[in-house]
Every structure is written in C-alpha cells, then in structure tokens.
Design brief:
heterodimer, A: 112 residues, alpha+beta, Arc Repressor Mutant, subunit A, three-stranded antiparallel β-sheet, 4 strands, 18% strand
C-alpha cells in the first residue's frame, strides 16, 4: 500500500473538529498499517515491516519518524555480523493509543 | 479518510488493520522445514539414547546445553535475526499461559516418573519417535492456530 506523504498531525490532537477519540496520527492508512504490523510483534526488523506494509524505504522512514516523535514506536539499531539492522517496536503509549483508536473504530462500525 | 470516518470507512479500516496484523504475525512463524527437522532430531536423539546409553553419558549434557542456548538466543532480537527470523511474536505472560505451562510441565514429570517404573523395552526410543512425529505434524498446525489469534494490545 502506498499513499502520498502527508504532514503528521500532532499526536492526540483534534484538527478540523474531528472525533476526539480517534488519534489523528492513526487516521493515515499507512501509519495505521505500520501499527497493525507491529501490534502482534516484538522488535520487528525494518525490512520486514516495509515488506508487510508494501511501502518504500523512504515512506516507511518518514512514517516511522512521525510515530517515534509521537512516542508510539521505538527504534533500535545494531549489527548482525557485518550487516546493520534496524528494529522497530510499539511502545506502551503506542499500544494504548492503538487500542483506543481501534475501540472507537469498532464503535463507529457498529452503527452500520 | 476524513477526520471522522463513516461506519463503512471504519469497517473497511478495521478489516485492513486485521489483515495487516495477521499477515505480519503469520509471517513470523518458524518455517515448515524447521518443524520437520526438529522432529527428526528428537526422534534420532531418542533412538540414540535408547540404543547407545554411552552416547547419552558422553554427549547428553552438551546437547542439552546447546539446545538451551539456542532456545534462549531465539528469544533475543539479535538471535532471531541470526536464525533468519526478522520478528518475534509478542506473547506477554498471562496467568492463563503460566497455568498451561506449569500443567504441561507437571504432566511431563508425572509421565516420566510413571514410565520409569515400567519395564517397557526401548521406551526412550518410542518416546523420542512419538515426540518427533508430534513435533513434525502437530507443530506447524499449533503454530498456525496460535499465530492467527488476535494479539493483546495492552
């Protein structure tokens, strides 16, 4: 999945008078798919998340930076042998925000 | 999607979320060959221990140590990467999982005690082959079932 790069709204913000219980940062499908890929995992490699979400390196980097700035994702860098690796993990705040966001989406979808 | 999604949008987003979550989680499983290879290893070790008690005395502690080391390594991100696994499934220890693990350990201990009192010929070889077959056949099915369950977001 690819989508145009967009500016990240402030975490927990409510631009445009939208639903206050939805995190504006997670309304972007790419950011939400990254969070979805990380939801059931512990320390996933950057390349694995890129392949799981179907985005380019640069798109993933930008989205990860936004999620890191919001405190939703943590990043660790290291080496395995001589090859550099980057690992990603959801933070406790990220899991809390994702849980609240998904719960709100379920409420909205229940009105179908 | 606008700031407040419609029920249709929300339902679609939830479907996409679940699809991405499940794809990523299932992709972290051990490959089929590793289950079959592990099953063969367990069966061969059982037969070797049974037919050649000297082998167990000479190599038993080494083999146990190496297997323990590999098991611990596979729980670290560096070790996982070394084994070609780019991510690990998050399974925080819940009370239910601890109870199941303790019950399984107790069952194995009781079965071992009971079996040691029987005079069954080649019991270790039979147990090794049975354990190996169980690992090779039931392992991938159990893994798929476990990985397809929704994760705890807490």
């Amino acid at each position: 999945m690819t989508s145009p790069d967009v500016e990240a709204p402030p975490p927990g913000g409510n631009p445009g008078g939208g639903d206050a219980r939805l995190d504006p940062l997670l309304l972007d499908p790419t950011r939400l798919s990254i969070m979805a890929a990380l939801a059931g995992l512990e320390w996933a490699e950057f390349a694995f998340v890129r392949d799981s979400t179907g985005v380019t390196d640069s798109t993933l980097s930008k989205r990860i930076s936004q999620l890191v700035d919001a405190g939703f994702v943590e990043v660790r860098k290291g080496h395995v042998g001589k090859r550099p690796r980057t690992w990603l993990n959801l933070t406790t705040d990220g899991r809390t925000a994702l849980r609240a966001h998904i719960a709100r989406l379920q409420e909205i979808a229940a009105n179908l | 999607m606008s700031a407040t999604p419609t029920p249709d949008d929300a339902a679609r987003t939830l479907r996409d979320f679940e699809q991405h979550r499940q794809q990523a989680t299932i992709a972290t499983g051990w490959p089929l060959w590793s289950w079959i290879g592990g099953g063969i290893l367990v069966a061969v070790l059982g037969v070797l221990y049974d037919l050649n008690p000297g082998f167990a005395a000479d190599w038993g502690s080494w083999i146990t140590g190496v297997l323990l080391l590999l098991a611990v390594l596979s729980t670290t991100r560096w070790g996982s990467a070394l084994f070609g696994r780019p991510a690990r499934v998050r399974r925080p220890p819940t009370a239910g999982r601890i109870v199941v693990a303790v019950a399984f350990g107790a069952l194995v201990a009781v079965l071992t005690l009971v079996a040691s009192r029987w005079e069954v010929p080649h019991l270790v070889a039979a147990a090794g082959v049975a354990g190996g077959l169980l690992m090779a056949i039931a392992g991938p099915l159990w893994q798929r079932h476990t990985l397809s369950r929704p994760p705890a977001l807490s």
